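Tip: read the tokens left to right.
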């Protein structure tokens, strides 16, 4: 039996290396046949993870049918690509659990990744793998702890055993909604923290944004039925702390570039951009105030400058500090 990974970007490749290092047979699928051949020939992912080498028990492929024997299939494509991928390939996949690795909310529909999978691959068990982990560190075998969310306890325990390694520790929860919202909305907060850092507004401002951003993501998640302890765990607070404090974070780096007045690169996936707009839509739908997410969306949309956005946040009415109540 093998583990299939749909997506040969940095995170998909890193997970392939981590699992292969633990002796698993891994099939790493790329939608680009030429790139799959390059991976097989060079054993290097020079585009997305150049520091790592593919182990012999990783088989790159562009043939979706090669995953038919997979015991589990990890969805490691960008969040905005999940629907198109499953629309094309869902009927060609083995009836194995689908483990969502993307951290994002679909722009327009505001669907969580699990809702997309449930709509387009309804016969599959669904799990979510999320939390504070950089791809290059996972590939290098550095200790990493992540959240594995699955509503079916038997499937969750089986996946926890299958996907955990000596250096990749998975903590199980049934709160699939909370795990996704924490992992998604923290990217929006990371964009805000990057903007503040790039604009030279200081570490105090960044700490305040992180803290109030955590309150925002917690309010939205709880309004949507998530458990508060999930947001306080690896998939919420843990991921937030990593992403908002490191230039290695794509979302923080993108925000930093914007804060410095630079045009940002579109060559890499920055999940927080689309998620900022989707989170604002969800906030309106559930009657939750999210001033930081609204400010980020306005900056990204060209409606506010970073200085004006910061001024708007600082002139909001004074309130008591709260997570569950008003911001």
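Filled-in amino acids:
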């Amino acid at each position: 039996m093998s583990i299939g990974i749909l997506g040969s970007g940095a995170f998909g490749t890193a997970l392939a290396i981590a699992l292969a290092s633990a002796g698993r047979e891994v099939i790493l699928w790329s939608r680009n046949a030429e790139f799959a051949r390059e991976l097989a020939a060079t054993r290097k992912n020079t585009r997305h993870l150049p520091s790592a080498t593919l182990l012999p028990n990783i088989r790159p492929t562009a043939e979706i049918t090669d995953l038919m024997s997979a015991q589990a299939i990890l969805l490691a494509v960008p969040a905005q690509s999940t629907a198109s991928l499953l629309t094309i390939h869902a009927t060609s996949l083995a009836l194995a659990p689908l483990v969502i690795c993307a951290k994002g909310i679909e722009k327009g529909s505001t669907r969580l990744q699990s809702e997309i999978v449930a709509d387009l691959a309804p016969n599959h068990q669904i799990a979510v793998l999320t939390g504070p982990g950089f791809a290059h560190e996972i590939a290098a075998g550095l200790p990493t702890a992540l959240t594995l969310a699955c509503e079916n306890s038997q499937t969750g325990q089986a996946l926890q055993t299958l996907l955990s390694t000596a250096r990749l520790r998975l903590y199980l929860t049934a709160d699939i909604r909370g795990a996704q919202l924490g992992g998604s909305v923290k990217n929006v907060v990371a964009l805000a923290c990057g903007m503040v850092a790039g604009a030279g507004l200081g570490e105090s401002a960044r700490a305040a944004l992180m803290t109030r951003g955590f309150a925002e993501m917690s309010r939205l998640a709880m309004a949507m039925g998530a458990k508060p302890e999930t947001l306080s765990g690896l998939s919420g607070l843990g991921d937030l702390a990593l992403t908002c404090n490191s230039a290695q974070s794509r979302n923080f780096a993108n925000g930093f570039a914007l804060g410095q007045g630079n045009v940002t690169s579109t060559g890499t996936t920055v999940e927080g951009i689309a998620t900022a707009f989707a989170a604002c839509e969800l906030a309106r739908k559930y009657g939750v105030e999210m001033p930081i997410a609204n400010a980020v969306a306005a900056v990204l949309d060209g409606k506010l400058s970073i200085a004006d956005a910061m001024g708007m946040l600082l002139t909001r009415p004074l309130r008591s500090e709260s997570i569950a109540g008003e911001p």
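The mean pLDDT is 94. Strands lie at 2-6, 26-29, 44-45, 49-53, 58-61, 70-75, 98-100, 126-130, 144-150, 168-173.
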